[in-house]
# Entry
Amino acid sequence: MSHWIAPVTLSDQHVTLVPLATGHHDDLVDAVRDGELWNLWYTAIPAPDAMAAEIARRLNLQTQGSMCPFAVLDPASGRAVGMTTYMNIDATNRRVEIGSTWYRKSVQRSPLNTEAKRLLLAHAFEQLSCIAVEFRTHFFNHQSRHAIERLGAKLDGVLRSHQTNTHPLAAGAMRDTCVYSIIASEWPSVRTHLNFQLNRASHKDTRSC
# Structure
């Protein structure tokens, strides 16, 4: 494991990120069944019977120092509702990608994702002194692209025919990858923007009670 990024627990009101472990398997299997997420052709989300292998893959990349994986917990239930990672770790240039992220359908479009990204970005820029944090997604994954843009990330460009799409529903199709980033000088404004979004969401929750 890279000495630059080590497993850590990050927590706030709407979400807790903990180091991924094999013990999260059953929660994650239940989570991925909510919406049958593995059927989305434009992303790579493990099917229930492939969850153990996916956890093992991420933990193996952690031992190699190229990934720091998290289980995403819902504080209300204490159960894992998805996964996210620091990946493509570049300690020399202090760059990292936040990716390989998915959440069960019932928590999508909720404050959970915004807060998870704020925690990961704050740790990257304020504790790790990152120069830039990157996000990558499929050109046709419009939900993911909109979510990244709502964070305040800017589109660096599109890597055309970047990868072969291996999903059974897209056999032979090529993936165009959209690359976004937030750089260190932008973080104060992005942080203010994310705090505003979360404060507004919390205010709405209070009014609805």
In short: The chain has one domain: 10-208. Strands lie at 10-11, 16-19, 67-74, 79-90, 95-103, 132-138, 154-164, 174-183. Residues 187-208 form the longest helix (22 residues). The longest strand covers residues 79-90.
